[in-house]
Amino acid sequence: MVQTLRDQLPASGSGGRGWVPPGTHPDPRPPDEADVVVVGGGVVGWSVAYWLKVLEGWRRRHGLRVLVVERDPTYSGASTVLSAGGIRQQFSLPENIQMSRFSASFLRNINEYLGVPNEPPIDIQFRPGGYLFLASPQNAAALEAAVQLQRDEGAQVTLLSPTQLKEKYPWMNTEDVAVASYGLEDEGWFDPWTLLNAFRRKATSLGVQSCSGEVRAFVTSTNYMMASAPASARIKYVHVHMPDSLEYQPVACAIVVNAAGAWAGKLLEAEGLPRGLCQPPLPIQPRKRYVFTWHCPNGPGSSCPFVIDTSGAYFRPDGAAGNYLGGMSPPEEEEPDPSDLSVDHNYFQEQIWPRLARRVPAFESLKVRGSWAGYYDYNTFDQNPVLGPHPRLENLFSAAGFSGHGLQHAPAAGRALAELLLRGRYETLDLRRLGWDRLLGGEPLQELGVV
């Protein structure tokens, strides 16, 4: 049974030493204590914090004390803002489809959720445009089965034969395509930075506090135990190290949420966590992904969908006519070094461009305009998020491992985890299968729609 925050917190409802009440300027240092510490200030972390405040529902003198800790206040290397900004309904796992459907509704009504009084309306610059998945003869049956599941979940997706595909997109080479699927609604792309800032501003207006720093160590209940091999433990303090300093601030807490994205696995290797209780390890690693932009005036045009090629390469329009962006995940054995965000331009020339030009002959004459690299929080076990309580660290909850889908699933995953924390169960979406049990049992959930 999952303990709720009501079970974890003191009955007095004290605001706590160092806590900054809503409406005042935050302290540059973290407070001495918080009810919930969210490690990671990307869109998933801020979504969790926002939903905790929206759903808390029961009165405490100062409300629920939520602290978001982000190590990179510039977000220069953040997965959220370096993504391609897409949302789609076309997945092969029911939970992923359900999260996409929730998030699409959330984005359509974003000002009802994240609007702040006396501030301008939020415009995430959403561009409607379906995803177009192309399948080879070998993968046609799997794509058709996925579309049937998507329709069963309420998504509007259609199948296109090669003839229909060529009629709809005459600029496309369809020689090796057996079937394609196209999303008719609730798919497209938007500005990730605007969504992140909207979550952050709204959560802050509701009383969430944030600080810049890095959680590098923990103090757990095992520090106070006589037993040499306890079966479980609780985190008592997180140590937040200040930027460009040897100082750290211990923060007493009732709950810790691991929303550290690509570094979520590394967080569970931090000092102070009992190694025996951190098994199995959280299989989330940073995987570097490149995004390239190019110009091609005689390309597909502004009606081009978000195309996922049979080869794994993808592309979509990018702003003004004739501009596009795209990329491709490499095979496992060719993963680039994730130690920095440098771009390998040869990867585009040698691997991506030939695939693009084969699918769209007009792309033979494209001119590369720019590039960047970002991180997937890649779950090496099954490329799906790990949501929910840790099996042995009783008050540690995970919200990471989305493997490239964190931006689009953040509104849904944040609400789900907040429900679990506050009410002890999922209510809006049943995401129990995305918990730790599948890691313990060695039973991966296969998602075929990882791009």
TrEMBL record:
The keyword Lipid metabolism does not apply. This is FAD-dependent oxidoreductase domain-containing protein 1. GO terms for biological process: mitochondrial respiratory chain complex I assembly. InterPro entries: FAD-dep_OxRdtase, FAD/NAD-bd_sf. Residues 35-420 form the FAD dependent oxidoreductase domain. Residues 1-32 are annotated as: Disordered. Pfam families: DAO. One of its GO terms (cellular component) is mitochondrion. The keyword Oxidoreductase applies. Keywords: Oxidoreductase. Required for the assembly of the mitochondrial membrane respiratory chain NADH dehydrogenase (Complex I). Involved in mid-late stages of complex I assembly. GO terms for molecular function: oxidoreductase activity.
